[in-house]
Fold:
Amino acid sequence: MKIGIIQQSCTHDVQANREKLARNIREVVHQGAELVVLQELHNSLYFCQTENVDLCNLAEPIPGPSTEFYGALARELHIVLVTSLFERRAAGLYHNTAVVLERDGSIAGKYRKMHIPDDPAYYEKFYFTPGDLGFHPIDTSVGRLGVQVCWDQWYPEGARLMALQGAQLLIYPTAIGYESSDTPEEQERQREAWTTVQRGHAVANGLPVIAVNRVGHEPDPSGQTNGISFWGSSFVAGPQGELLFRAPKGAEVNVVVDVDMQRSENVRRWWPFLRDRRIEEFAPLSRRFID
Structure:
């Protein structure tokens, strides 16, 4: 399957961001993409650097204006499209939600981000309620997609649950970058850890992984930090963790990666992790900590 990745910078202008994405989506479709994956919260700047109730005005219902806009593109271009939206579920109730659109423009399914960070410059708990839809793959015309969002990508449990329900791909829209006060060495360790843990999900589950990150520097409106320099590095890994593609750290990228969807079958025969799991011994995993 030909998978399109769009790694781009964003501005404060939502409409301009959407139009830029539309151009980039068309570009990868022209290159043959059947499935296109966008980065986390792609409609706007990454607004979670500060706690500001007015920024909740960026949220929208699902279905809503963005699903109509991107659904029309999916229908016109005959692709499956993975989007990432700020969902307004009700007054004062918001989610960080990935929405998958089918070739006919309809909503194939959605996933609400389960793990919500709360760190300097990443004040997501102020905006997002933890997801309540569980870890369930979304069936589409190009396959069963195990979609999660950003901070979820550090946890092996979600990837495993997706795999156990027949996901054929693990997909992670992302917004992650450097803390300016860290040394270059520490910044590089973090970026490599981000790549490594997700390649581990590919290996442990025998599935390809697609991670799409944003790129560019976004200032902190409060001035309390130096903002976030998103490290790009979007990548596609095969079912043995092999890197099929890795984008640069500091450039926008529209690329199509060809993924062999049959390879997982052979890899799982060679490395039968699902067969050999001692599931009867895993009950303690449901506890916060074991004293």
Summary: The chain has a mean pLDDT of 97. Residues 2-277 form a domain with the Nitrilase/N-carbamoyl-D-aminoacid amidohydrolase fold (CATH 3.60.110.10). The first helix runs from residue 14 to 30. The first strand starts at residue 2 and ends at 7.
